[in-house]
Design brief:
mainly beta, single chain, 14-stranded antiparallel beta sheet, globular, 26-stranded antiparallel beta barrel
Length: 804
């Protein structure tokens, strides 16, 4: 067969595949009244035909169509063509002219000539084309079914991309594989190629004498995944080549070695197993190499770039988790996360090392190992957990090179065992309102001493602390919460509440400043109060609504008794926003609590107009009868001075300003800020997302923290702007940009600029990346990145949703 004829046949197959389906528009004949119909509406052995001309001789039925194609249904099969012949006794059929076959699973086969075997499957086809369930297409000049499991296609073309345009005309797929012969082995669930030519936009770019990939209907199959290629100043050119080994539908291995031109290879492994009621994922990596980065080897104050340092040793990490949710109210799980080097993830670009997989999570640059169990019903909740933390955070940045940064001491972080939380609500109302009982218990143990902000200023030693043991503490809390709502005739909503709480602390190994060591402390607090709100709604022109809702809270509490001997383990930071401003306990944990007389007021204004567009704005503030100096802590760079990181120490809290807007379905944004009494921002966050055209988009976000009033090496104030955007310039071609700017240090910490191609079939990004973070041990890094995601073949990532 000549090349011109092969191309003509393939083009004919594509044209047939783009024909509209008549099967979706036809209905089967009604079943016989005395027979059980099949899923297609026919009794077994019967044939339904719609045609201009039809006839029957014995068991052979013939039909032709002139104005319309012949429509035939036999069992669960639908066959369409210009002429059709059926041997009902043998179950053999032949069709010619714009043939289309649809099976019960919805798979569609197109051909100019089609012969069905005794199993009513395509035995021989000319101008063969088929659409697979995931949108991929397979076409061939001829196709023959060699056996029950093997299909042979000659001069074939496979593509995961659309082959028809919006008008139904054939189009050149952006990615395809053309081969002299293709074998589709249903038992192996694989597609095998001989003399395979890879094409981008119809242009040949690569040739292989033999090639294979899983059948597109396979959810997961063993084989190589798309590699990850990038360049890093520390590792040089880096290529990670993942290989997936499927053990069973519920178990697989991922072997992903990373090869580098400047340092030794790094091997990553992952094992996943799905159970009837849960999943376990274990991953890790290892190498045997020297450290590398920017080191000041000769002590002249200048770091030498990208050098190996120290003896060779084993360097590794382990990240695992399990979640089990059997039938019933109980569920449980675990995480196990550890690394041998504080900067291992940064040096080798390990993917997603800080994922949240358990009941508790260790936030960015902290690893958590935990075991937990939960029990939840409609009226109760119980959780029991224990965990330890490994920190990868920098405690002091080295002025010469990030390779010599000092990190947090893991022995100064607590071991938490156990942590118990319980809640229960009776089904019936109590005094006409909702009653909730809560309980909490925790034990924390430290190996080494840790001062502010955990310990209060009154018990922190003024002299050296080397050799002092860490403070251990245990707490048991019981709490009663009752609320009842009322609505006045004028529409004002009132909610009366009572909150009672008792804490019992046992604290060991306190510093000997006050002659204390082991103490048992009891404290209690009772609060009564009233929440009130008055929503006012007005209909504006053009169907818009304006809602103004003043709200407030008045509460009276007993003295909170902030005993300085109680460590502050769980209430160091507070996110003051619209929701937390009106809580009785605005601190996230139990160790700090408020008391006295408090008045909180705010107002929310919302406007809504057509098609879900809206904008809202809130401003509020809280006032108390007296200052609360117990909320102040030492300034890290000057421990003799105190400051208020929470905004609650003064008689008036920070102003809370919050808003969001959505003027269209393509633009949305939100902002939140706390402003102190002098009008200065303490904390702020804002973000805006925008879309234009069909795929152009951008996101800009801003975050600021100005809570520390004194500059110094331990000051953790920050100010960042982050940008990510993509803009298509011509067709499927576009550009991408991403970056993070540290406005505190006037530095672009991370940036990317890339060229993008993206269509319905695959996405490719190629560009330049610079990493200038202070924690990166190899210093500023410049390199080229390459990202590829292919339909059907997968991408440069690897998820867990393939397990059943």
């Amino acid at each position: 067969m000549t090349r011109a004829l092969r191309l003509r046949l393939l083009a004919g197959a594509a044209a047939f595949a783009c024909l509209p389906s008549l099967a979706e528009a036809q209905t089967g004949a009604p079943p016989q009244p005395d027979a059980q119909p099949t899923a297609g509406g026919l009794v077994p052995g019967s044939l339904y035909i719609e045609a201009d001309n039809a006839g029957r001789i014995g068991d052979v039925v013939s039909a032709t169509g002139e104005s319309e194609r012949v429509f035939a249904r036999y069992g669960d099969l639908v066959l369409i063509g210009r002429s059709i012949t059926f041997d009902i006794a043998q179950g053999i059929g032949t069709a010619d002219g714009e043939v289309e076959l649809t099976d019960p699973e919805g798979n569609r086969v197109f051909a100019s000539h089609l012969e069905l075997d005794e199993d009513l499957r395509a035995g021989v086809a000319v101008d063969f084309a088929t659409h697979l369930a995931n949108g991929a297409s397979l076409m061939a000049a001829t196709a023959v079914r060699r056996s029950e499991n093997v299909n042979e296609l000659n001069y074939a073309l496979f593509t995961p991309c659309p082959i028809c345009d919006a008008e139904g005309n054939p189009r050149e797929p952006s990615l395809s594989i053309q081969a002299e012969k293709v074998i589709q082995d249903e038992e192996l669930r694989a597609v095998l190629y001989r003399n395979a030519v890879f094409k981008l936009g119809g242009v040949p770019v690569f040739w292989l004498p033999a090639f294979a990939h899983p059948d597109p209907t396979v959810e997961r199959a063993s084989g190589l995944l798309v590699p990850t290629v990038n360049y890093d100043d520390g590792r040089g050119l880096s290529v990670e080549t993942p290989y997936l080994q499927v053990v069973s539908p519920s178990e697989d291995w991922l072997i992903s070695p990373q090869f580098n031109t400047r340092v030794l290879p790094f091997l990553n492994l992952q094992w996943r197993r799905r159970f009837a009621d849960g999943i376990i994922v274990l991953r890790g990596g290892a190498t045997y190499a020297r450290n590398f980065g920017d080191f000041d080897l000769d002590g002249d104050g200048d770091a030498e770039s990208n050098v190996d340092f120290g003896d060779r040793t084993s360097r590794s990490y382990f990240l695992g988790y399990g979640r089990f949710d059997p039938a019933g109210p109980w569920r449980w799980g675990f995480t196990a996360e550890r690394t041998s080097d504080k900067t291992l993830f940064d040096r080798y670009d390990i993917r997603d090392p800080y994922a949240d997989n358990g009941l508790y999570y260790g936030d960015q640059r902290r690893l958590i190992s935990q075991i937990y169990a939960e029990r939840q019903t409609e009226r109760s909740y119980l959780s029991v957990a224990a965990f330890t933390i490994q920190s990868l955070r920098v405690s002091r940045f080295d002025p010469v090179t990030p390779a010599l940064n000092e990190f947090e001491d893991d022995d100064a972080l607590p071991l938490v065992a156990p942590l118990v939380d319980v809640r229960w609500e009776p089904e019936a109302a109590v005094l006409g309102g909702r009653l909730r009982l809560r309980g909490s218990a925790v034990s924390l143990y430290r190996e080494r001493f840790f001062g502010s902000p955990v310990l209060r200023p009154e018990v922190i030693p003024t002299g050296p602390t080397v050799g002092l043991p860490g403070v251990d503490s245990r707490r048991v809390t019981g709490q009663v919460d009752w609320r009842r709502a009322f609505i006045a005739p004028a529409g004002i909503r009132y909610e009366a509440f009572f909150d009672g709480r008792v804490d019992v602390y046992s604290v060991d190994d306190l510093p000997p400043v006050l002659g204390l060591e082991n103490e048992t402390i009891t404290r209690e607090r009772a609060t009564v109060g009233l929440d009130f709100s008055y929503p006012l709604i007005r209909r504006l022109a053009d169907g818009a609504d304006l809602i103004v809702e003043p709200m407030g809270q008045f509460s009276v509490s007993t003295d909170p008794d902030l005993d300085p001997r109680i460590p502050n383990e769980d209430a160091e930071t507070i996110e003051l926003d619209e929701s937390s401003l009106f809580r009785v306990d605005r601190f996230p944990g139990y160790d700090l609590m408020e008391g006295g007389i408090r008045l909180t007021a705010g107002v929310r204004t919302t406007i809504r107009w057509n098609q879900g567009r809206s904008a809202s704005f809130f401003v509020g503030r809280s006032m108390r009868d007296a200052e609360q100096d117990g909320f102040r802590v030492p300034i890290p760079d000057d421990p003799s001075r105190l400051y208020d990181p929470t905004g609650f120490a003064s008689q008036t809290s920070d102003w809370v300003v919050q808003g969001e807007f959505k003027p269209s379905d393509r633009i949305r944004g939100w902002g939140h800020a706390t402003v102190d009494g002098s009008g200065d921002l303490r904390r702020a966050e804002a973000a805006i997302d925008g879309r234009w055209g069909r795929r152009n988009l951008a996101t800009v976000s801003y975050i600021l923290d100005r809570s520390n009033p004194l500059d110094g090496s331990l000051n953790r104030n920050y100010e960042f702007v982050q940008l990510a955007a993509q803009q298509f310039v011509y067709g499927n071609w576009g550009v991408t940009v991403a970056g993070i700017a540290d406005l505190e240090r006037d530095l672009i910490t991370r940036s990317e600029v890339g060229l993008l191609f993206d269509d319905d079939c695959f996405r490719i990004e190629v560009g330049y990346r610079r990493d200038n973070t202070r924690v990166r041990p190899t210093g500023p890094s410049d390199g080229v990145f390459f990202r590829l995601n292919l339909a059907t073949f997968g991408g440069s990532g690897y998820g867990s949703n393939g397990l059943r």
